[in-house]
């Protein structure tokens, strides 16, 4: 190992007496992935997780005798990366259930629901039955969107650079490039209107796109948020057996297998520098851990504004830029319930094994984004609904089912506050209107994960899980280079996580890309 860490660039030099070569702050899936690659490369690596379990919002946890996912459980983009094979995650117990159909969509405004399959023709046949007037638009959409989705997924597994993007484009004979260029300048809502006429086609794609970023689909520059439908035809959507947390447990096992350490109940209070570079961290209990490499898989604003101690003068501009920026606030909520019977939709709709998206209109989504500032919530907000135990019975106790209801957009600064708010119960009642009688009576127990809960239980500042928005062009042009290059103005300090490229969801490319950059500085 001494040979691995002896010769370094970018000021990454050994620290006298340090027990570790690399510290990773945060045991979410990106932090764990970075740590696993570093440990596999021979660096003495430790992961520090503030909670008593790893996984962050990608985790699963026990509730009412069953297992629930902290966030929605669908994995698609992660399965397009090399991480599973690179880290031999199947050898660490990871198994996937293939989800077909991948999703079901419907609009609050009415009309039939429709199912989305990985196979294009099967999806088109579905639309021909439920929304025949949308078939031509869907084919036009895919002709433009699918090459762009393929390009973006391929480009995401490398740190984004102009030369790298050019290389990926040339390999594909420029397929997808015109769409990426045009769509990057447009709003996602305008694109949806150019292809589709029905809310059931326009809205659900936006729920998985700009609404996940917490912005209106009418916002210029959100056009690549119109790619979710195409993504499902490129990647295969699946769910880990045992819940989403089975993934993060497998990655943690890979860290340990490579000789790394994963320490829980280890809350970081400071990133220590010596005036020239990062030299380690201080935990909330006063424990100091030293290493020449520190990777933060946590909120960048907290990392730069609250944690840095004695940073080098060259970092002053970066720190001032982040200090002058308003920290983000949470906008997602989730209801978990244990049922004694799965819900049945009215009019013989499909069982809710795959995720059901219930979408507002584009106009309502735009209004919902504006209501974040005033603490309001749509009367009929966007919902992502599923019953994970239908596909994976291991998640529920015998005779029970697990129910998941994710809601967008739900402001952190809720008018009247979240404590005692009737909103979460109202969401259940609203969904019950789409079900046969008996859904509410089937609930054995339930809990609400609102932005204030994400703040207190998951250490997310203001309940906000920072997310990089946009595609590779936005990454190359970013005014915050630390979010796309993964290294910062503090030598030895790196970033990973959903705030960095390529962004939200269970993707993992950020963790792998960060490790690539760190290891490039370790010869």
Give your account of this protein's structure.
With 523 residues, the chain is α/β, with parallel strands linked by helices. 34% of the residues lie in helices and 17% in strands. The strands form 5 sheets. The chain has a 7-stranded mixed beta sheet. The termini are close together. Residues 1-12 have low confidence and may be disordered.
List its traits:
523 residues; seven-stranded mixed beta sheet; five-stranded parallel beta sheet; 21 helices; 34% helix; 17% strand
Number of strands: 20
Q: β content, as a range?
A: 15-25%
Specify the biggest β-sheet: 7 strands, mixed
What percent of the residues sit in helical stretches (DSSP H or I)? Answer: 25-40%
Outline, from the CA principal axes? globular
Instruction: Order the strands across the largest sheet as they lie in space.
Output: 7-6-16-17-18-15-19
Q: What structural class do the secondary elements suggest?
A: alpha/beta
Gyration radius, rounded: 23 Å
Low-confidence stretches: 1-12
Topology of this structure?
Layout lengths: L1 H5 L15 E4 L3 H12 L4 E4 L11 E4 L2 E4 L13 H4 L9 E3 L4 E5 L6 E3 L3 H11 L4 H21 L6 H10 L5 H7 L4 H8 L3 H9 L2 H4 L14 H7 L3 E3 L4 H13 L3 E3 L4 E6 L4 E6 L4 E3 L2 E4 L3 H8 E2 L6 H8 L8 E8 L15 E5 L2 H10 L10 E5 L1 H4 L9 E8 L14 H10 L10 E7 L1 H8 L13 H5 L5 H4 L7 E3 L13 H12 L3
Parallel strand pairs: 1-2, 1-13, 2-9, 6-16, 10-14, 13-20
Antiparallel strand pairs: 3-4, 5-8, 6-7, 10-11, 11-12, 15-18, 15-19, 16-17, 17-18
Helix pairs in contact: 2-12, 2-21, 5-7, 5-11, 8-9, 13-14
